[in-house]
Design goal:
CATH superfamily of the largest domain: HAD superfamily/HAD-like
Number of domains: 2
Number of helices: 11
Shape: elongated
Order of helices and strands: EHHHHHEHEHHEHEHEH
Number of strands: 6
Distance between the termini: 6 Å
CATH architecture of the largest domain: 3-Layer(aba) Sandwich
Helix content: 40-55%
Largest sheet: 6 strands, parallel
CATH class of the largest domain: Alpha Beta
Strand content: 5-15%
Structural class: alpha/beta
């Protein structure tokens, strides 16, 4: 029986990607008048993936990945952000627009309420640092729903390292076999959790799962859902 549901934050409960794209479009419109940002949004997404994973692997620090994203993005327009302060100021200006676009997915709060009604305890594991993730929880009024929020920046290792899943289960005093973890990434979230002995759940909102990914999930015992509305019924059967 699943007694504990653990969640990822970005692009699981919080519509991170939408806020990112709205934020960078607004930032470009302000700082590069006349430039159509729409053709550059995918490039910004790719730079986030590249440099944030460099941070998670320990190659660069948190501020370093921000500076690298800003520099590489602006280099595409022939603009050099040479000084660290310039790159950091550019990123801070972008963050203002990003924060303005914060929103939850429509199924987030109903899911959390349903789990609470079923007596399932709720927590969070998110890759990031507390000073960046906690304001999202506070602003979007999510904090009260979670008994414990564990960030990789504070714990010291990121998902999918089994240690962060096991540490969080220990905080709750729950055996990993009685816990589920749901997130928007197959390998980082669902397979990482399954490898630590939890029930892994991949939230594939866009139904992008390939046959190979579907088979990989099945082999690990992980489940695939398309909406958080499907989570409570799944956990009730598990």
């Amino acid at each position: 029986m699943i007694r504990l549901a653990l969640f990822d934050l970005d692009d699981t409960l919080f519509h991170h990607r939408q806020a990112v794209r709205a934020g960078i479009a607004a930032h470009v419109a302000t700082t590069l008048p006349g430039i159509d940002a729409s053709s550059h949004l995918d490039r910004w997404d790719a730079l986030e993936e590249q440099h944030y994973h460099r941070y998670l692997s320990g190659e660069i620090d948190y501020l370093g990945q921000r500076r690298a994203r800003a520099r590489d993005f602006m280099a595409g327009f022939g603009v050099t952000l040479g000084e660290d302060a310039a790159a950091e100021d550019w990123f801070e200006t972008y963050l203002v627009e990003y924060v303005r676009a914060w929103t939850l997915f429509d199924d987030a709060l109903p899911c959390l309420s349903t789990l609470a009604a079923q007596g399932v305890r709720v927590g969070m594991i998110t890759n990031g640092i507390p000073s960046f993730q906690q304001p999202k929880l506070d602003t979007l009024e999510l904090s009260a729903h979670f008994e414990h929020v564990v960030t990789s920046g504070e714990f010291g290792v990121p998902k999918p390292d089994p240690a962060i899943y096991l540490h969080t289960c220990n905080l709750f005093g729950v055996d990993p076999a009685e816990a589920a973890y749901v997130g928007d990434r197959l390998h980082t979230d669902a397979l990482g959790a399954a490898g630590a002995g939890l029930l892994g759940v991949w939230l594939d909102r866009e139904a992008t799962a390939s046959p190979a990914e579907t088979a990989t999930a099945a082999d690990s015992g992980a489940h695939i859902i398309a909406s958080l509305h499907q989570l409570a019924p799944l956990l009730a059967r598990s």
